[in-house]
Write a structure and sequence with these properties.
- The structure is a homodimer of 203-residue chains.
- With 203 residues, chain A is mainly alpha-helical.
- Chain A is 53% helix and 6% strand.
- Chain A contains seven helices and three strands; from the N terminus they run αααβααββαα.
- A three-stranded antiparallel beta sheet of chain A has the order 1-3-2.
- In chain A, helix 1 packs across helix 2 (33-58) and helix 2 packs antiparallel against helix 6.
- At the A-B interface, helix 1, helix 2, helix 3, helix 6 and helix 7 of A face helix 1, helix 2, helix 3, helix 6 and helix 7 of B.
DNA sequence: TACCGAAATTTCGGCAACGAAATATCAGCG
DNA sequence: CGCTGATATTTCGTTGCCGAAATTTCGGTA
């Protein structure tokens, strides 16, 4: 694909990540720029969206994590167990408790012990909760749409498909290091750098 | 590798996100599955890599955020100012101070007031720091390589390119809500769900 | 019925990140 | 030279998240 059938690489506009990867080149030449670039961009984008959510949602008296919790709950139809939320929101169990407690105090949801299985708790969105969620919803979605909107529908599909394949690999247990060990690997050292929680505020 | 690029949609293996998006469908039908899918997957992948970094790096006596800091420093050739690190790692200024202090105590870096501009501080990687970074490096890169390795080089390039276009949009100030406003938007509500970064903790 | 391992949720202790304000220094200008 | 606004970094106080342990309940088995 070095074929350069279309536009020369140099002509394309560069984003922050291009510069970032370039700075790394001399330090770790064996690093694959596309692996590095893709991973870094995903991190930055995730971060960026998080920040937007934080700000946009603030106008409705919510914090990002509060909105996310309500959102996760709404996604389950307004009813869920802490365990389901824990999975959807990708949190430690202890964190779920904290979030639910705060939201319950604000009257956005109710927790009731499940009669069916008394280890469980049923979490349910209240009318106030659904309303708060609803109002903040558009703001959040608008940014995702604005960003992903620069791609054609076909390209979005393509992006999503590529990512699915990567994620399927991620969902597999990982083959235990041992093997190649330190030496070989050669892999692109994970830029860890900006990635990680640091990630995304733009520019 | 991975030759089977095409295959009926129905035949393709499903990842966690497929189920997630599917659950959302009835709640927000106007949501674009590909926007939602892509965003969710990026978030999950970022999260996953963070987790791997956390674990892998632990074998070398480092925590994710410590490694990331050393990594960012190494990426600048071993010398940088707190401000540069703040930008690369995308942290609040206060967080940088905390990280540097901890790493300095461990002898992985040194901070010295810049003689040139006395507001500044020069941060420099020590030999011990570079060594710790170096040893943990392979572990981290291996996972990125494993995951992105399921794509062909051309596909990786494609992924990186698609993301660059999205990020370029993100790097632009955002067009101030007001405009189209509420109505349209319809966009895919930010699944907020698992997205959002918790912030890493130690091993 | 009594017991045992597994599962769901909460409590506890500690840590890192953040926002805001403080401190020190620089650069420009009358 | 001394004032003013901007920049770099640190300090302070708060908060959410996490890991581990505790608690309660379930499901199966003798």
């Amino acid at each position: 694909m070095t074929r350069a059938t279309h536009r020369a690489v140099a002509d394309r506009p560069r984003d922050w990540t291009d510069g970032h990867v370039e700075r790394w080149r001399p330090v770790l030449p064996q690093l694959d720029p596309d692996v590095e670039g893709a991973v870094t961009r995903m991190s930055k984008l995730t971060r960026h969206l998080g920040r937007v959510r934080e700000q946009g949602v603030a106008d409705y008296g919510l914090q990002k994590h509060e909105f996310d919790t309500l959102h996760g709950l709404a996604g389950r139809g307004g009813r869920a167990t802490p365990s389901e939320l824990r999975a959807d929101l990708n949190l430690a169990p202890a964190s779920v408790t904290g979030r639910l407690e705060a939201l319950e105090r604000r009257g956005f949801l109710v927790r009731t012990p499940s009669s069916d299985d008394r280890r469980r708790v049923d979490v349910e969105l209240t009318e106030a909760g659904r309303l708060a969620w609803r109002k903040a919803l558009d703001v959040v979605g608008r940014e995702e749409q604005r960003l992903l909107g620069v791609l054609t529908p076909a390209e979005r599909r393509q992006l999503s498909d590529l990512l699915r394949r990567v994620l399927l690999a991620a969902e597999q247990p990982a083959p235990e290091a041992g093997a190649g060990d330190g030496a070989g690997a050669g892999a692109g050292a994970g830029t860890g750098a900006d990635r990680q929680e640091a990630g995304g505020r733009h520019a």
